[in-house]
């Protein structure tokens, strides 16, 4: 009897012909159950199609066969979906040959940016950044003989760093700092060439996806902006603004922080997109063999993912505050830890008026802020490591968490050692490179957990 009553017309006809056998209300209730099961099944199968990269076993069928299937499920009393339960599984799409080529190119560019940041740190630590007093888009001409070196040295003598700080510098000493700055600039231009030439080829050959094309344009713009910001930063140290006897010719700490911030953004963009091409994050699927988790557990996963992104932001901010420490030589004062001159908060932390300027122009406050940010960051990383044990992470997520923990504690150790030993070149350069290593690990972790907790109820 029920097999006949599967269409609205059949139900109405049955009620007219046999008015006493079944009330209209019962017929409507039964038909509503059939349509509800039909719609629920269609939603589940459509989700399976959306969230699965592999071929699915969904068979296309017409509405009649679909309703037949739903009716059988209803008659057999099989629940289509448990209450308050979400189905979750992971599947990764393998990288194609083009993806691997593009990913390797992006990873190479990212590695070159890493080296550029390290070279920039050494350039700042050796006070070599103001040795080249001119800037040209395609590069400065390298001195080839003694006369050209003397001419370059004479140009340098016209600017504040030589007049105030290096007035006793010899030509050989000048050559050493000039070569360091020249290497840094040349490496930056090489990054531009390694990026632009392959990008043009990949674009012409159609090897870049539509979304990747926009990101390539953005990354190229960042490279150009980074070069301009580098010269804008150097120019601030060549201006005649050092009047007070205690003034030391140096670049603006604001422009130095902007220069480093752009480099970190560029590095992040290269690394994340390279990982996306080489080792795609595992995606959520829904199928019969999936693991089931409650919606409360799903919310916990989303909170855990929020903690990861918060940690990433704090790592970035701490690295950026390091630019102010380097720009003001703030690491050369209060060389004790954890206290600052036997005090938790130094007396001169608010020595400048208005008070807001202390956070970017007072060396004591700048170092204090960097300490607080560093301690807060390692505390968040520790919490992240502890909470990660409560969740089943996809793919390489567990390894990425371990990498973040190792890089975080190594960075803290390098930072404290740099401070206690009065900023030696080797430790200070390692500390700056360590910040990039830590940023790399947290980017890797964010990439691995990209789809974590995104499957809706």
From TrEMBL:
Catalytic activity: Fe(II)-heme o + 2 A + H2O = Fe(II)-heme a + 2 AH2
Biological processes annotated in GO: heme A biosynthetic process
GO CC, any one term: mitochondrial inner membrane
Species whose genome carries this gene: Temnothorax curvispinosus
Gene designation per UniProt: LOC112461280
Gene Ontology terms, MF aspect: heme A synthase activity; metal ion binding; oxidoreductase activity, acting on NAD(P)H, heme protein as acceptor
Spans traversing the lipid bilayer: 102-122, 186-204, 216-234, 254-275, 313-334, 372-388, 400-421, 433-452
Pfam families per the UniProt record, alphabetical: COX15-CtaA
Name of the protein: Cytochrome c oxidase assembly protein COX15 homolog
């Amino acid at each position: 009897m029920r097999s006949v009553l599967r269409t609205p017309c059949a139900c109405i006809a049955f009620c007219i012909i046999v008015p006493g056998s079944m009330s209209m209300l019962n017929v409507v209730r039964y038909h509503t159950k059939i349509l509800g099961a039909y719609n629920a099944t269609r939603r589940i199968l459509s989700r399976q199609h959306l969230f699965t990269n592999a071929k699915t076993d969904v068979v296309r069928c017409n509405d009649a066969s679909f309703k037949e299937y739903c009716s059988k499920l209803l008659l057999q009393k099989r629940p289509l979906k448990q209450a308050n339960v979400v189905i979750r599984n992971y599947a990764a799409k393998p990288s194609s040959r083009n993806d691997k080529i593009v990913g390797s190119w992006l990873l190479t560019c990212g590695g070159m940016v890493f080296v550029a940041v390290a070279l920039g740190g050494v350039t700042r630590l050796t006070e070599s950044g103001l040795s080249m007093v001119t800037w040209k888009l395609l590069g400065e001409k390298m001195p080839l003989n003694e006369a050209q070196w003397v001419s370059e040295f004479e140009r340098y003598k016209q600017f504040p760093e030589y007049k105030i700080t290096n007035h006793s510098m010899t030509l050989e000493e000048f050559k050493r700092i000039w070569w360091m700055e020249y290497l840094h600039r040349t490496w930056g231009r090489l990054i531009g060439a390694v990026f632009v030439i392959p990008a043009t080829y990949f674009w012409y050959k159609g090897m870049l996806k539509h979304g990747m094309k926009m990101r390539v344009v953005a990354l190229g713009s960042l490279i150009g902006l980074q070069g301009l910001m580098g010269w804008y930063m150097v120019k601030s140290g060549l201006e005649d603004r050092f009047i007070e006897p205690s003034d030391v010719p140096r670049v603006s700490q604001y422009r130095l922080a902007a220069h480093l911030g752009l480099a970190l953004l560029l590095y992040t963009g290269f690394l994340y997109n390279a990982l996306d091409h080489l080792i795609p994050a595992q995606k959520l699927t829904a199928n019969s063999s999936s693991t089931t988790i409650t919606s409360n557990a799903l919310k916990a996963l989303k909170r855990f993912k929020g903690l990861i992104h918060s940690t990433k932001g704090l790592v970035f901010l701490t690295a950026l505050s390091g630019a102010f420490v380097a720009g003001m030589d703030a690491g050369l004062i209060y060389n004790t830890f954890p206290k600052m001159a036997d005090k938790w908060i130094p007396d001169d932390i608010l020595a400048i008026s208005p008070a807001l300027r202390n956070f970017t122009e007072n060396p004591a406050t700048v170092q204090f802020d960097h300490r607080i940010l560093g301690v807060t960051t390692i505390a968040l990383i520790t919490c992240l490591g502890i909470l990660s044990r409560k969740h089943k992470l996809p793919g390489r997520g567990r390894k990425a968490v371990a990498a973040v923990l190792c890089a975080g504690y190594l960075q803290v150790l390098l930072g404290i050692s740099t401070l206690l030993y009065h900023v030696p070149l080797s430790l200070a350069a390692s500390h700056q490179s360590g910040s990039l290593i830590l940023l790399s690990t947290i980017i890797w972790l964010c990439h691995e957990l990209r789809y974590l907790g995104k499957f809706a109820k």
